[in-house]
Amino acid sequence: MDIVIVTTIIASLFLVIGAAEPLAARLRLPYSVILAVLGILIAVAATFFLRTELTDALNPVAEAILSLPIRSNVFLYVFLPTLLFQATLGMDARRMLDDWVPVLVLAVVAVVVATLSVGYALALVSPLPLVAALLVGAIVSTTDPSAVISIFRSLSAPRRLARIIEGESLLNDAVAIALFSFFAAFVMLGLPNPTLDDTLSRVPLLIGGGVLTGWIVARAAVWLMAAFARHELAPLSISVALPYLAYIAAEQLVGASGVIAVVVAGLTLSMVGPGRLPPQAWGNLRDIWDLLAHWAGALIFILAALLIPRLLEEVRFSDFALIGVVVLAATAARVVILFGVLPLLTRLRLSPPVERPYRVAILWGGLRGAVTLALALAVTESFRVPVEIKRLVAILATGYTLFTLIVQGTTLRWVIRRLGLDQLAPVDQALSKQVIAVALQTVREDLAKTTANYDLGHDTVRTEAKRFGDRLDQAVKQAEDSTEILDRDRITLGLIALAGAERDTIIARVREHTISPRLAEQVLSDADRLIEAARSGGRTGYRTAARKSLGYGWGFRFAVILHNRLGISYLLARLTADRFERLLSQRLILRDLDGFIHGRIRRIHGRRVSDLLHDLLGRRVEAVETALDGLRLQYPGYAEELERRFIRRTALRLEEREYATMREDGLIGEELLTALMQDLAARRAAAERRPPLDLALQRTELVRQFALFEDLDEDGLKRLARGLSTRYVNAGEVVMRRDSAPKSVYFIASGAVELQNAGQTWRLGRGEMFGQMAILTHKPRRFEARAIVPSTLLVLDEARFRRLLQRSETLRDAVRASSEKRGLSADTLLMDQPRSG
């Protein structure tokens, strides 16, 4: 094939891609539908010119178009990894883990139900054997992730709902392709219908192998990218190789799902990358992948559409009835998922409620595209598949794809409009009025400064100021007089605005290098939770999300288990240092928000709302201070090290700003600026390194602060520190249950615990102990102990506690005081304990 013609065709395809986006906007149709239609028209035109006798001038171009080496492997190995990888980079992986149950249930159940529904329906009405019919079911179960994601982003759907649907659409293809590979093996080898055991036996390798492969390849890539982070283009090049290596390794070396490997690799990079790469490098990486995915998505649709005339060459009239069966069966399966499984998950509190209009939009927006055609093409390329099966698979998959693109795609906006999903919700409409009013007030202040600085004409300024003032008064009046906004809604709007300001402050601090990139994604995720919680649950939701951000997650508990049982301290030390740094950053950010409440929210929502938000913010600051004080008590001196690091990084940021200002003023040249920035970058790299946290040393210091152990010598303190284990508990968590067997004594390092029994309560704080009475009386515990704030407890087993009681007079005195406080006999408790000599 002439290289000039091929180059011309490729360049022309990019022209088509460039024209398709504005054309789709003008016609108000999905972008993928326009690309598919253009691809079909190009193939039809090439076929026409090749067969017509009107002219032979375009025959070489037509032959080149129809002879393009479009194979299924081109889609599966070149384009699909790019699309999936970019989609996962744009997802909040940490937030996705919050909803992993509905995502997995919807992805797996949706594909299985659709495959079985289509497969058994076709087996009943067509000459296809059951295994071939199930193969068709797996093929048409693949959705177009980019189309689904773009639909929900255009709907301004609730973020959590959009996140669940995005995750489901990505994993949907992974499961469908895995089922396709399984059924295709039976069809190509002519084996009998697979049994349930055959199906289930393949699942662990397909999914588990894909997950492990994707994670290993991504971690290796991140390590390389971090090592080469100073070289601007090196991390970008490594990221381009990552999805392809993950896909090939999973498919060819492990025999697992390459799609799952790519999805896991993308999620891993999105979680780890921001903390290992400089912010500018991570931003460039995201920009590059957005462009690559745009080109790949457009090319895959056009090239797949070029295949449609070829796949439909042998269509018969009776085949249209079978296409109708596929449409009905696939739609029925989707209805079962959306109107059966989703409501069930909501009742079980595993998924947020999905309103009926949204479910209808999901149903009608399930477009099929290039992946479906690529899988059908893979079947037609196999010489082991019988001819009639190849023909029917190609026609049914292509026909169903055309139905979703032409019928559903062209009417999707009309359906969305009829459902009312193109309109802002009442609260969002009210929020838009608040935004306009706040923006115009800020503009007025800045405009007054500008006119004063430039000494403009008095009459001109007065005339324009009057016009702008009239518009501002009207905007403020509309915002204040909105009758549809209840006081509860005003509080919700204020909380949303406050959480949004917190998020903006975090982003600004990350850019200024005062918040480390490794924590950026986590604190931004906490801010997103606040926004969603305020929008869905108002004041209660905001408080719950704020409280959850200070709690100890499952990762922390796992790290404690590794530390206590296996002696592996690295993970706990890192997470504890992360918590230190996050709390310090959160305290600074929350203190910056007072000005936002008084300067902006009060102007629109009034004094009562602003005072309420100020009170909520004050409680958050107090909770952060309490959690931070607890860590200071546990690890004295470490907070000061982090604060010194913050001051050094702030000084470097101010120094960088001064150099940039001098360059803009012409005081220094570009060469000198470059040298200064290089020196500053070296010092910043040193300042970014976080001081290590030695848990063993810190625990000894912590034990030394307990008055209970003041009469122990240095060796005794060290032995006690080694014998103690650490337990972190959230507010409301039960530490010790009533009637449980006594095994341990608890010492409160930070926080507070409440003991309850028969309507009586006792509250204990830092430095106190509980659980010793049941051990000394040899009776089941009479009290239930519950943490009332996030607390850190030191736990000592019974044998060590008895030995410690023998050595420490101070501890015995504490036991006596505690027993007398509860009406017990101290002498009876301690009669078996010999005094230390």
Automatic annotation (TrEMBL):
Chief localization = membrane
SUPFAM superfamilies annotated for this entry?
A: cAMP-binding domain-like (SSF51206)
Q: Which residues cross the membrane?
A: 6-24, 31-50, 70-89, 101-122, 128-149, 170-191, 203-229, 241-268, 288-308, 320-341, 361-380, 392-416
User: Where is each Cyclic nucleotide-binding domain found?
Assistant: 708-822
Q: Where found?
A: Cell membrane
Determine if Calcium is one of this entry's keywords: no
Stated name of the protein: Sodium:proton antiporter
Q: Mind telling me which Pfam families this protein's record contains?
A: cNMP_binding, Na_H_Exchanger
Q: Say yes or no: keyword Cell division present.
A: no
